Write the structure tokens for this entry.
Amino acid sequence: MSTRKILFPVLAVALAFGSCVHVKEYQKNKLNDADMLLGARKSQKNELNFQNYREGAAGANGGKTGGGCGCN
Amino acid sequence: MTLVGIYILCMGAFAQPTKKDSVYASRPLRLDEVNFVTGYYTQEGIHSPVTGGIGTEHVVDLSNGLDVKFVGWDTHNTKHTLGVDVGFDHHTSASSAYVSKSGASKTGGTRIYPSLDYTAENSRGNSIGFGTYFSTEYNYKSFGLDVHAGRKIGDGTTVNAKLSGYFDKVKLIYPSELIPQTVATSPTTYTTASGNTVGNGGGYEGKSSIPSSPRNTYTLSLGAEQIINSRMQVSVVLDLVAQNGYLGLPFHRVYFNDGSVQVENLPGIRKKLPIGVRLNYFAGDRVVIRTYYRYYIDDWGLKAHTAELEVPVKITPFFSVAPFYRYYTQTAINFFAPYGAHTAAEQYYSSNYALSALTSHYIGAGFHLAPPDGILNKHFNALDVRFGHYTQSTALYASSLTFAFTFK
């Protein structure tokens, strides 16, 4: 099945990790920009909630993976 | 092995150089940031699980969240962060009325969910912490705990791990015509969506002691972040999730092909495996490209792909517009069938369209304003506005509007 599907993103990331260069602190102004945050924004909290409730998949996006109901 | 790995990670995070006299002054915890997030959500649909996969899914939800962050340093130059978060949601749901067959149940509900998180991070960027979470609403209570640790390794690489457990209680509020005799106080009473017992004539009979059933969720989340170059960084997150207990909802009806009706019945164990990859790239001086992909698989037969693209454009250094698009597709679980399609021979059955085969699109835009002198006053640091429209192939559509205010 899906071993290949899981391996694909892992390999893509491994490739990205392998091609990295050293970045000095004073070169990180763009990396430290708020839009470069490696995670969901605070303003995305509500939409992550409703997507968790209206869809069958959840997790691996910084949202909760349990707790709460969203039952309707 | 996992526990040993987390232990090593934690110990590494807090190994301090042996130094008798510290050159750092202690700074006690002080208020650092306050965030207030308020949102409005509305949806329409025609496949409510309360009525067996047919019927209105109209929902309006108003949500509010306040989180307060305190930061301090000790004499080892370790940064201590304490986050206190309180959420308050109120929703009205048209389908909730039909927990009672006559449509007389209460259609509104409120959820309150406070949480607490503590993290200590040393001068090398290694961290350890714990969190706790509580949520209560009329038919559901949840209590959660977590421990988390992060460690910087090598050049621009950070790894982190989080182990969490949620211990929930699902109140067994059944559809009025399906209340087991052991739960009903008399054959002519039913339980409303607000947990009250109502008599035949619609009169209020007082709160009943409705039993609950446990639902536990355990998650091990493993992540890594890597700086690729001065404009690009990537992260990967793998969650290993195991659930047990009552994993359906007691007021979801299933209508069978022989015309009979039952409460949905799902297995008592579910294992989930989502893996997500995020890659952000700063193109030129004004444009950021944010991408996200997730693959998900579980042992109920559901497989899903999620892809997101967001492109914030900096109109000025302090104002940006960020259009976004999200695509999602999933297969159905092995136990889903629409209204009137399940057979009595099946062991597990559900007509919840959230677990059916579906595709969804979510499109919208965000606006971020953060002038250096603040908005209106210097403490009002930033304002985020985000709007999105959601469509699902099951004929469900929704809109979401969120305002996030940051004060420093």
The two ends of chain A are 33 Å apart (CA to CA). Chain A touches chain B through 54 residues (CB under 8 Å). The mean pLDDT of chain A is 78. The helical segments of chain A are 3-18, 45-54.
